[in-house]
């Protein structure tokens, strides 16, 4: 497959066309941002590590019956993916209180949720990706009631598949963000699943092994990303 015209650039990836109209070239970058772009930097080898992790995780999800945009890994930092009509929404699932949930509703960090919490955010950098409810989504015309129910069900299914997958690898899946699109009217998981978009804690020590090390200047950022990839490839016996 040939890399074609540059289409757009996000904070962590660049998207190019290919000779196939329905196939995109998704190139993962080492760039890292936090706080809606206020903090910027690079994380060495992140592009390759995140491409590898997304490829492994999406294959696992496909085996579990979740449709994803992944076609194949083309090179160390490149995944070939299906073109989707993306929802302008971010779906966050939370198993353990951390991050903005702690700030917003005052739960202590580390508190296990009785049931996974599903949240919807508007994907809009200028507005700072605000938390929205179902009525907001419908008022904005971003998804129908039926689509919203399907998005939430798909996010819960991803959680059900990924919690044991990461626990087998000594990692607690604290929370994560998903982006979905549509292909032929069907809901399909797009974007990535990586330490940029998930919180992972070591099961035993609860050490943070994700982008919070960058967000909170904890050091050992590159090592944490490498450790997640190493564990993805070496589940517990
Ligand atoms: P939060 O606690 O900051 O709301 O983040 C929840 C999860 O979503 C966390 O795993 C990080 C991920 N996330 C993104 O991938 N992109 C974003 O823009 C935000 C705000 C969170």
Keywords:
alpha+beta, 5-stranded antiparallel beta sheet
Description of the molecule:
The chain is α+β, with helices and mostly antiparallel strands. The protein has 6 helices and 15 strands. A 5-stranded antiparallel sheet has the order 1-2-3-7-6, with helices on one face. It has a 5-stranded antiparallel sheet with strand order 11-10-9-12-15. A hairpin with a 4-residue loop joins strand 4 (31-34) and strand 5. Helix 1 runs parallel beside helix 6 (221-233). The radius of gyration is 17 Å and the shape is globular. The chain starts with 5 loop residues before the first strand and ends with a helix. The structure holds thymidine-5'-phosphate (TMP). The site of thymidine-5'-phosphate has 12 residues, from helix 2, strand 12 and strand 15. Thymidine-5'-phosphate binds at residues 92, 98-101, 129, 175-177, 197-199.
Q: What's this model, at a glance?
A:
With 237 residues, this protein is α+β, with helices and mostly antiparallel strands. It contains six helices and 15 strands. It has helices at residues 46-63, 99-105, 134-139, 145-167, 212-215, 221-233, and strands at 6-9, 13-17, 23-28, 31-34, 39-42, 70-75, 78-82, 85-86, 89-96, 112-122, 131-132, 171-178, 180-183, 186-189, 198-202.
Indicate the mean pLDDT. 97
Number of helices: 6
Distance between the termini: 37 Å
Strand order of the largest sheet: 1-2-3-7-6
Q: Categorize the overall geometry.
A: globular
**Secondary-structure element order, N to C:** EEEEEHEEEEHEEHHEEEEHH
Number of strands: 15
């Amino acid at each position: 497959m040939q890399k074609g015209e540059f289409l757009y650039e996000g904070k962590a990836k660049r998207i190019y066309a290919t000779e196939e109209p329905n196939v995109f070239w998704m190139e993962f970058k080492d760039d890292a941002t936090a706080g809606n772009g206020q903090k910027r930097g690079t994380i060495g080898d992140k592009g390759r590590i995140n491409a590898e992790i997304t490829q492994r995780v999406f294959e696992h999800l496909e085996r579990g019956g979740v449709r994803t945009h992944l076609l194949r890994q083309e090179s160390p930092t490149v995944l070939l993916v299906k073109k989707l009509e993306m929802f302008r929404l971010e779906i966050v699932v939370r198993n353990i209180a951390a991050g903005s949930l702690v700030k917003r509703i005052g739960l202590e960090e580390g508190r296990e949720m009785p049931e996974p919490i599903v949240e919807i955010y508007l994907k809009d950098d200028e507005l700072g990706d605000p938390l929205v409810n179902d009525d907001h989504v419908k008022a904005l015309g971003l998804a129908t009631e039926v689509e919203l129910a399907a998005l939430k069900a798909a996010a819960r299914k991803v959680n059900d598949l990924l919690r044991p997958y990461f626990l087998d690898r000594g990692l607690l899946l604290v929370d994560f963000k998903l982006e979905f699109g549509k292909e032929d009217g069907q809901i399909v998981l797009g974007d990535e699943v990586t330490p940029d978009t998930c919180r992972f804690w070591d099961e035993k020590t609860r050490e943070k092994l994700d982008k919070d090390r960058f967000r909170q200047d904890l050091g050992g950022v590159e090592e944490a990303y490498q450790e997640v990839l190493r564990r993805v490839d070496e589940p517990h016996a």
